[in-house]
Structures are given as structure tokens and as C-alpha cells.
Amino acid sequence: MADSKREVERKYEATPGTRLPDLTRAAGVAAVVHRGLTELDAVYYDTEDLRLAADSLTLRRRTGGDDAGWHLKIPVSPGVRDEIRAPLTDALPAALGALLRSRVRNAPVTPVMRILSARDVHHLLDGDGALLAELSIDEVLAERLTEEGHGATSAWTEMEVELADDGDLALLDAVGRRLRKAGVRPADAPSKLSRALTETAPAGRGGTRRGREPAPRTAGDHVLAYVRRQVTALVELDPAVRRDLPDSVHRMRVATRRLRSTFRTYRPVLDRTVTDPLRGELKWLAAELGVERDQEVLDARLRAHVAGLPAPLLLGPVSARLELSSAARRTGARQRVASVLDDGRYLALLDALDALLADPPLRPAAARAPRDALPRAVLREYERLATRVGSALDEPAGRSRDVAMHEARKAAKRVRYAAEAARPALGKPAKRFAGRMKSVQSVLGDHQDGVVARDALRTLAVQAHGAGESAFTWGLLYAREEAAAAARERELPEVWARAARPGLRAALEG
User: Fold this and answer.
1) Nearest CA to 150 among 110, 186, 90, 109?
2) Which helix (H) or strand (E) holds 124?
């Protein structure tokens, strides 16, 4: 079983025999206690082409110290990483292997570096003796284990200051100021592995960090840059979804939708014979992810409804029935998502997206100036949205209008995503355009959420009735959802009129 820990630390350059300045002069530090020396032996694993290192992930098997075992570190922000730990075994634990899958796909991970550290540990304590941070001075020896550059070594001394659990970042700032005043400077490399790979690289080879993409110039450049951002989001969100982190499923699903929308909107830029099959696979993935996401939205909505009712209107075991129903839906949805992410079809989709970016199927319009090609594509989607909204407003109240408004909602998302893709090239007009489309999408989205909630409430009412319970509360909530949907339908014409006001086309076309 793997567990995780949020690691917040700062790294500094040091020299053998480095002496610590008086850190009790740093705000909040009352004492510095020497905890002695520890010998650490870590073997780092990666693919042959160092895919993990390229994304700043580190996977190691470490012995020595009080946390021996397998450690996977995933970057969260500069100086902040999530460390997922698993017990010390010979083989890579399956739980950690799953978290690597979107990066390594079917490539094996093998030893790439051995790093030995003689760690001199100090604890920084507050006035009550509670741990504020751990400071260590590490004498490091690294040996490259890959076939290319095998046996090359590097040695250095570094200092780490790691914040205690739930600690205050201000403490790291205060300690950092004292260290810099004593001449200790921040380290250039974000991790031991990063520095070791750079310093032991064969002659003529650089480090593992990805180079910066050139600034987009053509319409095709801008579309591909947007596609690349969404593909990166898919890959990076995969382990977050597997770890069941908040909002991760929603964000991953949005990335799939943005890709589908981009491939549809920018057909004049990217050859649809290549992108249409990808759109089909992205639709499949979005639908599978949607099962869990839709349950999250529905559960939150129904809980809010129940919590907002006065006690006299809660007839029967309403909260208990809702919780049981929600738990059953969540369990099934979570299992379904986990199986999808382990499916070869999903990994093949990631490979196909990488192939598209490596060899883009550009059409003639891709070579045009962004202000020529991009607005035309966005406005084509806008015209489709206008038709959908008009149809929804013309439909009589009832199921047919519900369906028409849902179709309009999907069209509003496509316009919004199209404008987002064009924003780096078109600037504020595209930003404002996307914002207006989001306001339309919000009204239509709340209406659709209400449609789904009414279906769930009817099911709950039937279940309650069948169990001999009162169905009054479920009927009351159904009526409230029905009234809310009617309000959204009345609101739509005004919101659409504001979003589609005259001058929109001229503003977008610049």
C-alpha cells in the first residue's frame, strides 16, 4: 500500500565542512538540535530516454534512514512535491507503476543513477520544542548506471531545508535569509537526480529538461501550441486521477473536450483524416471520465438541496438514502475510471496524440497569419451556436427543449474553447469573447444539471416508495429543480442577447 506526503523544501549549494550560521536568529526558530549522521543509498529508475526526468519526476528505491522504501516524487509547484511512498521490495510496487503509466506507457523503467548521501541532520524547533523544519547537509556521490555514460561519477555537497508537516512557508523564507546572509546560495538544480544526470551526461549531451518551445508565428503554430497544452494536461492529470485528488477527473475531462473541440473547429488547419479518429477516441475517454464527474456534480447538488431544507420537510431517512445511493454510484464510477486508465486503448490514444504533435498533419491554412485564419474558425462555431440557441428558444417547454438546450450548451463550450485557443494570437478580444460564451454556457449548464438531478430525484422517490418510506421530500426537491430550470429558460434570452451584442464579429476580427 502506498501513502503520500507533501514535501516543501529549499535546496542550497554547500561545501564540505559547511558550518551553519546561527539559525535561532531566524524568526520563529528557538533551537537547532543536531540529530546525527545517516547513510542513504538510493537507486533512481527511469526509461531509457529519461521520460520521468524530463517531466521532473523522480522514482527511487532507497535504503538507510527512517523512510527506506520506494519513493515517487511528483512536482506540484517550484519547491513543492508530492512524495508517494511504498514499502521496500525488490520489484517496483504496482501502485507506483500505475502512477507512471501515462509517462512511460509500455516502456520499462530501469536503474539510471545510484546516489549515496552522507546526511548530517539538524532539527529546527520552536519555543515548545515542536519541529518546524529539518535541515540536512548532504555529502553526495552519484554514479551513472545507464549504458550511455555508465560509470561516470559526480560529487558535491548540498543543503536541504524541509518544512515540517503543516508548517508555515514564512519559516523557510526566514531561514533562507539567514543562510544567504552567511553566503549560502540557492542550488541551481531542483533535485539530486537532475544535477547528477547533467554532470554525468556524455560529452555533448545536455541535461534532461525540455527545451522551450519557439514562439508561435503562424495559425498552425498557435493551434498546435494549444493542442500540446491539452495533451500535457492529460498526461499530468493521469496520476492525480488515479490518486483520487479533488477536481482531477473534471480537469482531465475538460482537457479531452478541449482537444476534441480544437480538432473540430480547426479542420482548415489540421487534416481531419488524422484528427477525426482521434476525436472519436477522445469522445470515448470523455464519456468514461464523465461517469465519475457527473456523479460528483450530482451528489454535490443533491446534498446541498437536502442540507437547505428545514427539518420538518425531511420526511423519512432522506440523508441516509441519499448517502447510500451516492456511495454506490461513486464506487462504481471510480472502478470504471481506474479500469479505463489501465486500458491499452487509452495508452494508444496518448501515443497517437504524441505522434500528431511530432508530425503535425498541417493543411494550407496552417501557414496563414493567425489574425486571418483563427477568427474565421471561431466565428464558424459561433454561428452554429446561434442556430442552436435559436432552436432551443423556439422549442415548447418540456423534454424537447431540455434536449435542445443541452445541444446548445455543448456548442457554447466549443465556441469558448475555440476562442481560448486563439487568445494568445488575438489577445483581449478573444478573451472577452470567451468570457461571453462562458456566461451562456453557465446558464445552459445549470439547466442541464437540473435535468439530470430531476431524473435522479425521481429514481430516489421510486426507491423510497418501494421501501415503504415517504417520497414527499424527493417530490418537493423535484418541484424545486423544475422551477429552477424554468428560471434558467427565462434567463437565457437576456444572457444570449448580452453575449451576442452587435460588434462582436468586428471585435474578434480586429
Assistant:
1) 110
2) strand 110-125
Which residue type does 479 have?
A
What average pLDDT score do residues 53-66 get? 94
Residue type, 214: P
Give pLDDT tens digits for 30-44.
Answer: 999 999 999 999 999
CA angle 297, 291, 77 (to 5 degrees): 70
| Cβ neighbour number for residue 394 with a 10 Å cutoff | 9
Contact by Cβ (8 Å): 42, 62: yes
Separation CA 402–CA 108 (nearest Å) = 49
Q: What is the pLDDT of residue 503?
A: 57
DSSP letter for each residue of 18-74: PPPP-GGGSTT--EEEEEEEEEEEEEEEE-TT-HHHHTT-EEEEEESSSS-EEEEEE
The three-point CA angle 459-463-469 to 5° equals 130
Q: For residue 139, what is the enclosing H or E element?
A: strand 131-144
Which run of H or E residues covers position 10?
strand 3-14
Cα–Cα dist 28/135, whole Å:
15
Run of H or E including 76: strand 69-77
Compute the distance between CA of residue 89 and CA of residue 110 in angstroms, rounded to an integer. Answer: 15
- Reported as type and span, the H/E element at residue 227 is helix 219-242
Residue 205's pLDDT band (cuts 50, 70, 90) = low
Q: Could you tell me which of 251, 201, 182, 250 has the C-alpha nearest to residue 12?
A: 182
Query: At 417, is the pLDDT very low, low, confident or very high (cuts 50, 70, 90)?
Result: very high
Give the angle subtended at the CA of 424 by the CAs of 76 and 353, to the nearest 5°. 60
pTM for this predicted structure:
0.88
CA distances from 23 to 19, 135, 183 (A): 11, 11, 14
Predicted local distance difference test score (pLDDT) of residue 197: 95
Lowest mean pLDDT among 289-298, 389-398, 416-425: 289-298
The reported pLDDT for the residue numbered 508 is 64
pLDDT exceeds cutoff 80 at 204: no
pLDDT tens digits for range 393-411: 999 988 999 999 999 999 9
Which residues on adjacent β-strands are paired with residue 472? none
What residue type is assigned to position 445 of the chain? G
Give 313's strand partners.
none
pLDDT digits (tens, 9 = 90+) for 314-364: 999 999 999 888 877 777 777 888 889 999 999 999 999 999 999 999 999
Yes or no: say if 184 and 20 are a contact pair by the CB < 8 Å rule: no
Q: Do 40 and 62 touch, CB atoms closer than 8 A?
A: yes
Q: CB count, 10 Å around CB of 489?
A: 19
The answer to whether 290 and 323 are in contact (CB under 8 A) is: no
The shares of helix, strand and coil residues in the chain, as percent rounded to the nearest 5, are 55, 20, 25
